[in-house]
Design goal:
heterodimer, A: 262 residues, alpha/beta, Rossmann fold, two-stranded antiparallel ribbon, B: 406 residues, alpha+beta, Elongation Factor Tu (Ef-tu), domain 3, 3 domains, six-stranded mixed beta sheet, six-stranded antiparallel β-barrel, 7 helices
């Protein structure tokens, strides 16, 4: 995995977040308490004079890990976040793709409508998945949250001027250029507080975090940021290998994203 | 680690995605899971193993055997890092090609030597666009050499034709490397092919190693583009991105297009007060006087940057437009009126005998802007000399400033 220049990545992300804040009237961010969206908040604090100037949304299906809730409360207080917890249903008979698709997306639609958000910051990265590798920095979604991926807007030369239309919203992807290892190098350099589930206990750790039903840990003894960075330097395994929802059928990520999943 | 961005160019089906897939596998950058996924997809579709599926992730791309949208992947080779940008080779998808290729400093043109393929419209048009995008280094990879029994004659014919086209559009073909390859069989990619002893040059990856360029923006005069405003403890500050040079607290700055001076009272970088900031950094500044909304204005210490409402440009049309359009410099739109001078066929590189450009033509144009804008010639400073064109709210093309008229 290639380690990129953190200053360059940081400046790109700051530019995109400032551009979004400048251009959209009512912006929010998704925060899963995972490493990527937490780094995004750290970057927002750099972009906006130490404050996160937009609400952060946790789509809470009630079955996240206890450590995740604990981390949410702690950081929300420490960084004075305007936290919105939007409950999502969880039906025991539905799992994986259907669960995230049916439940979390419904909850997101509800809060977006209620609060009238016109842009949503989502901390996806290109290297996570082939489908995410096809995203734009500023990406319009339709009124029903659909991603028209076969006809994405042109995006070049610092022109991120895609607009929302017909009741749709804009997805903002400030972390698109970051690699997984860059996230960890940044956490190390900036001492970004991080969810304890990423660190190994009894020979396993979570490399990618979802909810308790669909996430499995990987074998690892990396119990510090340094050890995680070392582990990633040599890995040949995909980051999301522990995420059940990615694997059920072919093109699942495409379906999820086309439906507006984050 | 410094990463060199390289775009693939070329007509559809000539092997751009296959080449990237093949490079990802042979440099060890592709994870086993993605290779396995590409293998399974190939099998399911009843095809030979297709490395292109590593980047062509959409179902429509895999089933249809085409790249719809641009994607990127990174590789490391002999201590250097590269980001390979894949782009679609269909003419209907040229907006996606531009979106991907615009990030690159080097281009690899992939042209198939196979029978019935050879030099096609996008082979040349992509070169024209790459030159317009400001790409500095070109490599031409003549692909599918295995399909023509590694014929040196077929290779030379393609090479000569492309060299002539490059010279015609102003890219000195003597400085362009040509290499015969088979992306699918990994020949002349990492190591020299045993089937093409007549080729005396280096394999593709070795040629790429010589294309590393350094960013020299820090040593140039100050240029910064104002993005908007931000609340700071000392009042409202302007946010800006430094494009070149450095900016310092206490210094006097010139702001265009209003052409007024102000003093930098306070400067913030990454949320902290700082003495100075350099190229590439995003800043917030308190200045000696409030100048209202300045989004899109430019701070510049060089008289190369001008406030202008008439520019001579080269345009490329994704769809035909004439008359009134909107042009956007760094995301800031201005109404504009185009007067066509000369229409250019991007496949031949030569002027066309018409005053009505069609989609995918280029044209020399005079543009009159509805208001003054801070601009510079593309050849002197790219970030201020290029723009995108919108017509009735739709992306219509791109343009570069050849001369500032006034």
């Amino acid at each position: 995995m290639i380690e990129q220049n953190l200053d360059e990545l940081e400046e790109k992300s700051i530019y995109i977040m400032r551009e979004a804040k400048e251009r959209f009237g009512n912006i929010a961010a998704l925060w899963s308490m995972g490493k990527d969206s937490t780094v995004m908040l750290a970057l927002a604090r750099k972009a906006f004079m130490g404050k996160v100037p937009f609400p952060v949304i946790h789509i809470d299906n009630g079955i996240d890990f206890p450590e995740t809730y604990e981390f949410r409360e702690k950081l929300a207080k420490q960084w004075k976040l305007d936290l919105i917890v939007q409950k999502s249903d969880i039906k025991p008979e539905i799992s994986g793709y259907a669960c995230c698709g049916a439940n979390k997306t419904v909850a997101l639609k509800k809060i977006m409508r209620e609060r009238g958000f016109d842009a949503l910051i989502v901390s996806i990265r290109r290297d996570e998945h082939g489908i995410r590798g096809k995203e734009r920095y500023i990406s319009p979604r339709t009124k029903d949250f659909k991603w028209k991926y076969k006809d994405q807007p042109a995006e070049l030369w610092n022109d991120y001027s895609s607009k929302q239309s017909n009741g749709g919203h804009i997805r903002v992807h400030p972390l698109l250029d970051w690699n997984e290892i860059d996230i960890w190098n940044y956490i190390k350099r900036e001492k970004v507080p991080i969810n304890s589930l990423y660190f190994a206990r009894d020979g396993t750790r979570y490399r990618s975090l979802g909810c308790t039903h669909c996430t499995v840990p990987i074998k690892s003894n990396a119990d510090s940021v340094d050890k995680i960075i070392n582990e990633l330097k040599n890995t040949k395994v995909e980051e999301r290998s522990g995420r059940q929802q990615d694997k059920e059928t072919a093109y699942i990520m495409e379906k999820l994203r086309a439906l507006g999943y984050m | 680690m410094q990463i060199q961005q390289i775009t693939m160019l070329g007509h559809k089906d000539h092997g751009k995605s296959t080449l990237i897939g093949s490079l990802l596998i042979s440099t060890g950058a592709a994870t086993e899971e993605r290779i396995e996924d590409a293998k399974n997809t190939s099998k399911k579709l009843g095809r030979q193993f297709e490395p292109a599926y590593i980047l062509d992730a959409f179902s429509e791309e895999r089933e249809g055997g085409l790249t719809i949208d641009t994607a990127r992947a990174q590789i490391k080779y002999k201590g250097k890092a590269f980001e390979l940008i894949d782009v679609p080779g269909h003419e209907e998808l040229i907006k996606n090609m531009l979106s991907g290729a615009s990030y690159a400093s080097t281009a690899v043109l992939v042209v198939s030597a196979a029978k019935d393929e050879g030099i096609r419209p996008q082979t040349k048009r992509h070169l024209f666009l790459a030159k317009m995008l400001g790409i500095r280094h070109f490599i031409v990879a003549v692909n599918k050499m295995d399909a023509v029994d590694y014929s040196q004659n077929d290779y030379e014919m393609i090479k000569n034709d492309i060299a002539a086209y490059l010279d015609g559009i102003g890219v000195h073909s003597q400085s362009v490397n040509f290499v015969p390859i088979s992306a699918y069989k990994s020949e002349n990619i990492i190591s020299k092919s045993q089937n093409m002893h007549w080729y005396r040059g280096k394999p593709l990856m070795e040629l790429l190693l010589t294309c590393h360029t350094k960013n020299s923006a820090a040593k140039m005069p100050l240029r910064a583009i104002i993005q908007g405003t931000l609340e700071t403890e000392s009042g409202v500050a302007y946010t800006a991105k430094v494009l070149s040079g450095t900016i310092e607290t206490g210094s006097s700055i010139r702001i265009l297009p209003i052409d007024k001076r102000a003093t930098v009272k306070r400067l913030y970088v990454k949320g902290r007060e700082a003495r100075s900031a350099k190229a590439d950094e995003n800043i917030a500044i308190n200045i000696s006087q409030d100048m209202g909304n300045m989004r899109g204005a430019v701070i510049s210490s060089t008289n190369m940057t001008k406030a202008a409402n008439a520019i001579s440009t080269m345009l490329f049309f994704v769809k035909p437009v004439s008359g009134n359009v909107e042009i956007r410099f760094n995301g800031n739109g201005t109404d504009a009126r185009i007067s066509l001078d000369k229409v250019i066929d991007t496949v031949t590189g030569r002027p066309k005998n018409t005053q009505r450009p069609k989609a995918l033509d280029a044209a020399e144009c005079i543009i009159r802007l509805g208001k003054k804008v801070a601009v510079e010639e593309f050849s002197s400073f790219r970030d201020l000399g290029r723009f995108v064109v919108y017509s009735s709210g739709k992306f219509a093309g791109i343009g570069v400033v050849e001369k500032v008229l006034g």
